[in-house]
């Protein structure tokens, strides 16, 4: 038998539907919680809906109190203060309420109030979780108010280390909530920007779980359906926050992602964790920005899997079509193209790379990147598309792009032929319209320069041609590794004929000859 031995778990009780928050008190009682501590963030603590929930639980006879000293990117101090509040109120359970920060800190308080060791002694490394006294872990009811992290069905929480600024994943099986209440009415007030950012987090969880190299077909199936729910519902939820169907489906997609990623995560998270820890940026927003760059870097390992996924998702064009969908989705819901667009610079790339390679998520990436590769990838995520200005093109050799904006939105580098000073123009010949395609330009220059904006360490040259329908396709260059801006001079005879080159046939580049 060639299949590996694996353990599968899908145990959380999920109560899904509009208005289900009214059942909170009953679920607390069923879990043996009579004095719940509701852990949430400061913004939610001030909202009328939170006050109404607290009053409803009190009317049911439970002694509920609220703790809200929780940062968007939680730190150890939030846990420490939460434990103090838990002990001061003689609480016997936790209601984790909110987005990822409230849910994670709620779970950490339930975990740590009875322990004598540091929370970082319970990092998700080997069997470190066995260091905890499981008998001292309190029951948890989880109520998400965003559709992103899926922490309401997870056995872990993320906390930033105060010294190293690394995001640490803290794990214990007993912090999986007894019940998760998924009520879309609690998410309708979430602003569009946060709906978009948290939605990209849900997509990242499902996507990376689907692409992870480990054997877990159940999780892969869950992840695939989770991606479909995001595709069909995230734009609707962003455009119209009161759309309960879209909100409900996104809550389910979020929970599915967190259930599926027991199969593994990858470089999207391995990069977003250090960027989040060092720059205190929103985790879901980071995932959304980093996503296409990591997909491209993983292409050779995941192209077939993504191709199968696109067939189910109704996306045409295989891997390239999937990238175009990601780009279009990001543009539609307002996710920036590069990390520099949210104030992140390239000054700490060495730290990011060093942290990324040690991140637990890195082990689930389809390709195990080196620290140098993570630095290269991180740089591309920061700078985005450092395109060479069009004014540098010589008009006689400018290969007009048929869809410049589309290519830029995809973060594709623009590859073009540029006349070099030593090029002999007399060697250029021009051909008119071709029988099997549009007008084209034949370049027989002594040498041609290919300038790649943003990059590249490995190229594959040649005029390898093939037919697509009635169009002749020529490959200009295949860019595998994005790194530094550089110019490459092709030897005589290797300049390809420029026919109707389709950017979707090239890796990372896109050029179309207009017959100029």
3D structure, described in words:
This protein has 516 residues and is α/β, with parallel strands linked by helices. Helices cover 38% and strands 11% of the residues. The protein contains 15 helices and 13 strands. β11 and β12 form a beta hairpin. α7 (217-239) runs antiparallel to α8 (244-260) and α9 packs across α13 (349-358).
- Low-confidence spans: 386-516
| Percentage of residues in DSSP E strands | 5-15%
Overall average pLDDT: 79
Element-level helix/strand string = EHEHHEHEHEEEEHHHHHHHHHHEEEEE
Helix content: 25-40%
Main β sheet profile: 6 strands, parallel
Count of helices? 15
What characteristic shape results from the CA principal axes? Answer: globular
Oligomer category: single chain
Query: Strand order, biggest sheet?
Result: 1-8-5-4-2-3
Distance between the termini: 61 Å
List the helices and strands and how they pair.
Layout: E1 13-16, H1 24-30, E2 36-39, H2 42-45, H3 48-59, E3 65-67, H4 76-88, E4 93-98, H5 100-112, E5 140-144, E6 156-160, E7 167-171, E8 179-182, H6 192-211, H7 217-239, H8 244-260, H9 267-279, H10 283-297, H11 299-313, H12 318-333, H13 349-358, H14 371-383, H15 404-409, E9 415-418, E10 448-452, E11 465-468, E12 471-474, E13 486-490
Parallel strand pairs: 1-8, 2-3, 2-4, 4-5, 5-8
Antiparallel strand pairs: 6-7, 9-10, 10-13, 11-12
């Amino acid at each position: 038998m060639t299949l590996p031995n694996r353990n599968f778990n899908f145990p959380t009780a999920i109560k899904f539907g509009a208005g289900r928050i009214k059942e909170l008190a009953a679920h607390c009682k069923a879990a043996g919680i009579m004095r719940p501590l509701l852990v949430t963030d400061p913004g939610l603590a001030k909202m009328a809906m939170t006050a109404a929930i607290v009053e409803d639980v009190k009317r049911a006879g439970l002694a509920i109190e609220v703790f809200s000293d929780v940062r968007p990117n939680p730190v150890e101090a939030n846990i420490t203060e939460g434990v103090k509040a838990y002990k001061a109120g003689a609480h016997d359970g936790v209601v984790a309420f909110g987005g990822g920060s409230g849910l994670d800190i709620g779970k950490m308080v339930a975990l740590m109030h009875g322990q004598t060791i540091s929370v970082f002694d319970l990092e998700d490394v080997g069997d470190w979780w066995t260091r905890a006294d499981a008998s001292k872990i309190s029951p948890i009811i989880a109520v998400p108010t965003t559709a992103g992290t899926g922490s309401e069905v997870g056995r872990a929480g993320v906390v930033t280390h105060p010294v190293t600024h690394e995001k640490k994943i803290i794990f214990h099986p007993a912090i999986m909530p007894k019940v998760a209440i998924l009520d879309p009415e609690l998410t309708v007030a979430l602003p569009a920007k946060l709906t978009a950012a948290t939605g990209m987090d849900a997509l990242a969880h499902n996507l990376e779980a689907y692409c992870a190299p480990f054997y877990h077909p159940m999780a892969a199936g869950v992840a695939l359906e989770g991606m479909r729910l995001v595709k069909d519902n995230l734009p609707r939820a962003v455009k119209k926050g009161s759309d309960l169907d879209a909100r409900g489906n996104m809550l389910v997609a979020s929970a599915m992602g967190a259930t599926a990623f027991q199969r593994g995560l990858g470089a999207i998270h391995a990069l977003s964790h250090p960027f989040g820890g060092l720059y205190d940026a929103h985790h879901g927003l980071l995932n959304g920005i980093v996503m296409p760059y990591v997909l491209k870097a993983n292409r050779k390992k995941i192209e077939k899997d993504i191709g199968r996924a696109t067939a189910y998702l109704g996306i045409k064009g295989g891997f390239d079509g999937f990238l175009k969908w990601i780009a279009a989705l990001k543009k539609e819901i307002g996710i920036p193209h590069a990390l520099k667009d949210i104030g992140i610079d390239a000054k700490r790339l060495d730290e990011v790379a060093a942290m990324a390679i040690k991140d637990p998520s890195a082990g689930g990436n389809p390709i195990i990147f080196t620290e140098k590769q993570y630095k290269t990838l991180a740089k591309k995520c920061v700078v985005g598309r450092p395109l060479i200005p069009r004014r540098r093109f010589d008009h006689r050799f400018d290969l007009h792009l048929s869809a410049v904006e589309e290519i830029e939105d995809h973060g594709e580098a623009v590859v073009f032929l540029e006349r070099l000073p030593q090029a002999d123009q007399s060697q250029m010949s021009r051909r008119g319209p071709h029988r099997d395609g549009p007008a084209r330009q034949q370049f027989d220059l002594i040498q041609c320069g290919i300038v790649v904006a943003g990059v590249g360490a490995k190229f594959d040259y040649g005029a390898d041609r093939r037919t697509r329908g009635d169009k002749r396709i020529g490959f200009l260059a295949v860019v595998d590794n994005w790194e530094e801006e550089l110019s490459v001079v092709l030897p005589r005879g290797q300049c390809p004929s420029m026919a109707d080159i389709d950017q979707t046939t090239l890796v990372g580049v896109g050029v179309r000859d207009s017959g100029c």
